[in-house]
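quick one, 206 residues, struct below
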Amino acid sequence: MASSKPFRFPLGKTIVWLLCLMPLIWLSISVALQGSGTTGPLGANPIEYLNRFLGDWAIRLLIIALAVTPFRLITGKSWVARYRRVLGLFAFFYVTLHLSSYIVLDQFFDWQEIWRDIVKRNYITVGMLGFVCLLPLAMTSTKGMIRRLGGQRWQNLHKLVYVAGIATGFHFIMMRKGFQLEPLIYAAIICMLLGYRVYLYSKKRA
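---
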């Protein structure tokens, strides 16, 4: 008789962790090789490169996390759902590093200037909105918090990830001045992933 147990890959989470950490490992090596010159791996403006690199990987991991549910529903491979939380937390981790590099390396903890940037620069305003939406999701990602909030309230709260996804897409487009294809592609992927959820919701309501 065939086993009804779901597919399990013992090293799955370990591999996901290693893959998610690879960009940070590469960046750490690049920083070590940069030295004091301008021809190292980070180029002539290492602070800007570092900030953009962390932001790029934040949005990539957020997109992958958003893609887990559509992938599961379309393919029927339910085992991918167990990696959604770790992918979401790594997305938040890279968002936090991205924001921290701006606060520490770019603004040197000048909170007045940071506040002026948030108020005056639309792309920073939108980026901060994305971070604020992701913060409670990261704080309530544990099984204990799910029990305390209750399943339905926890699910409703975690719908903020959709707002965060939209804000992140806009932040990327607005940050890259002029017509650039890469942020438009990322925004289109986010729109498709969220559009699929809207389609499922409307189908259930019908």
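Residues 61 and 110 are 29 Å apart (CA to CA).
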